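Quick log. Single chain, no ligands specified.
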Amino acid sequence: LAVLSDQCAITTLTAPTATDNCVGAVTGTTTTTTPISASTTIVWTYDDGNGNTVTQNQTVTINDSTAPVADVATLAVLSDQCAITTLTAPTATDNCVGAVTGTTTTTTPISASTTIVWTYDDGNGNVSNQMQNVIIDDTIAPSCSSMDITVQLDAITGMVSITGADIDNGSTDNCGIATLTVTPNTFDFTNIGTNNVVLTVIDNNGLASMCNAIVTVENFTLGTNDNTISEVKIYPNPFNETLNIRMPQNYIGDEIQIELFDIRGRLVSRLFKTVTGNRNVVLKEFNRIDEGSYFIKIKSEGSKDSIFKQLIKK
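-> predicted structure:
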């Protein structure tokens, strides 16, 4: 018998015949049913009705060798300013299984330009691929919105630092703010008063906007235990060989800590002196330091208060 073959399935069978010496023509029968979607062997049986039978085999070959064909020849380019958050799978048509939905290993969100590879698989070992381009192109710069703030110097370091977030007043970007920076961002005694700063907003694609703000720098505040330390007098200023510190009356007998910082806030010297009855503390230890601008910090052992003053050495 002739081999029966198809790409997908055999849907109809034509029974073969035989000739019997008594009954003449005999039509073959089989238990195989249609459709036949896999290669197999059909067994045909010829029965003369008198107890005599004979069988005959017929080979069936099913061999799907045709891959699915995309329904759209060229997939539309997907584009966005920021990201593609959802994907719609394209389809293809297969000669055997009909509609095939594409699959991909690409996941969302897609935040950079790329090419999606869609795969159509008919389940019979035939696969075709189709490409889809994705273009992410952020062309909108972020908006910059800043606010004026007031900060206070630290009583220990004599400095204060801020971040871009400290003066940000709701800057926005269509794709989300990536970085906020402020220049300058560190202040010391030389900056007491108002200072102009620039806030820069930079998004993930390098687009930037800038806006201005004012940072008002205040000196540190004294503690609440004994504010009379604010009455400390330091003279002469500028000084050369000798520096005099006159303490308030209620500090007599106390040990005071005296620290000298350079203009960058680095500790130059630390001394401990006892306030005598005349309330004057005479310092000759600073006579060898270089000329320039300094800051002196004075703190009493009996108080949480401290005070900073600027000094000039000549």
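DSSP finds one helix and 24 strands in the chain.
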